[in-house]
Amino acid sequence: MKKMGNNIIIGVDHGYGYIKSADTIFKSGVEELPIKPPFMEDILELKNRTFVVGQIRNEHPSDKTKTDEYYNLTLVSLAKELKCNGMTEAKNVILAAGLPYSFFSAQKDQFKEYLLKKKTLNFSYEGEKYHIELKDVHIYPQGLPVLAKELDKYKDKTISVVDIGSRTIDVITYRKGRPFYNECFSQDKKGTLDCIDLVTKNFLAKFQEKIDEEDIQCIMQKESCSLNPNQVTFVKEIIKFYAKDVLKLIDSKLNGSILICGGGASVIKNYAGKLRSGIEINDDIFCNARGFEILSANRLK
Questions:
Q1: What pLDDT is stored for residue 169 in this prediction?
Q2: Which of 77, 132, 248, 300 could potentially form a cystine with 121 if both were Cys, beta carbons 3.0 to 4.6 Å apart?
Q3: Which pTM value belongs to this model?
C-alpha cells in the first residue's frame, strides 16, 4: 500500500495460481458455500452469499472477466492489505493491477471495467466488515513492474524482463528505456502450474500413487515435505527438467541481458543450475504488486 496525498494505492497481482498484494499472498481459489460455517477463517461474505477463499486453486480461463471469481478474489486481497495496515475502511483507493503482455491490449479496458464495476464496496472477510471506495483502476503489463524500482539502472541498456507466472511466461524487452516489440511476447501454459502437472503425471506413473500439490510446492522452494527421500529425489529431477526447458525456451527467443522474476524465478534459481552470464534473478514474489504501486504513484506525481 502507498499513500499519495488523499489517495491510497493498492497493487494486486492477479495470478492464475496465487493472488498477491504488496504484503499478502493466497491461492487463486474461491468456492461458494451453501451455509455460513461456524469458523470464519478464509470466509468472504458478500450480498448474503458466503464464499471460502484461498483454500483450493480454481481452473481459470485466460479472460479473467468471464466469471466473478477474480472480482471476489480482488475483494479479499484488498481486505488483507488493509488489515496489514490496521484498516477496515479506505477512501480514494486506486487499484493497480496487471495482465499478461499478449492479453494486455485486447483485455485491459474490459478488465478495468470489470474491477471498477462498483466503486463503493461493502463486504465482510473473516468476520470483519470492510468499506472501500474505489477512485480508479490502473492496468499495466505484467513484467513491467520489476523495472519500476530500478529504471535508472537499465535506462541505457537492452534488458528482457521474463516474468514466470503460474500459467504464462511474459516477456517485455526494453532498449534504452523503450519497448522493443519484436522481443515482447507471452508463452501460454508454460508456467509453474505446468511444472506441477508434469510432476503429478510422472509421479503417478512411477509410484502408482497421487502426490499432493503442497508437497510439490515445498520441493520447488527447497522446503521439507511429507514424501520419502526417494520420492523427493524423483520430484527434484522432474523440476530440474522443467527449469532447464524454460531456460532453453528463453535463450532461443532472446539475446542479451535477461531479468527473471515472478513466482517461477525461485524455481529457476533452485533447479536450473549455473546460469549464463547476463541472466539475473529477482525472486521477490511480491515484485509485481509492489511495482504496480510504484508505477501508479509515479503516474499521480
A1: 93
A2: 132
A3: 0.91
Number of domains in the chain: 2
Residues of the chain with pLDDT under 70: none
Domain span including residue 134: 2-141
Domain end residue (candidates: 141, 172, 190): 141
Instruction: Note the pLDDT of residue 256.
Output: 85
In terms of C-beta distances under 8 Å and separation of at least 24 residues, what long-range contacts does 240-244 make, across chains too? 240/271, 240/272, 240/273, 241/198, 242/194, 242/195, 242/198, 242/267, 242/271, 243/195, 243/267, 243/268, 243/270, 243/271, 243/272, 243/273, 244/271, 244/272, 244/273
29-65 per-position pLDDT tens digit:
999 999 999 999 999 999 999 999 999 887 777 789 9
CATH number of 99's domain: 3.30.420.40
Transcribe 1-45 into DSSP letters.
-EEETTEEEEE-EE-SSEEE-SS-EEES-EEEESS--S--TTEEE
CA neighbor of 20 nearest in space, from 285, 297, 274: 285
Beta-strand relationship, 128-141 and 257-261: unpaired
Grid coordinates representing 194?
Answer: 505446468
Residue among 189, 190, 188, 172 at smallest CA distance from 180: 172
Together in a domain, 6 and 68: yes
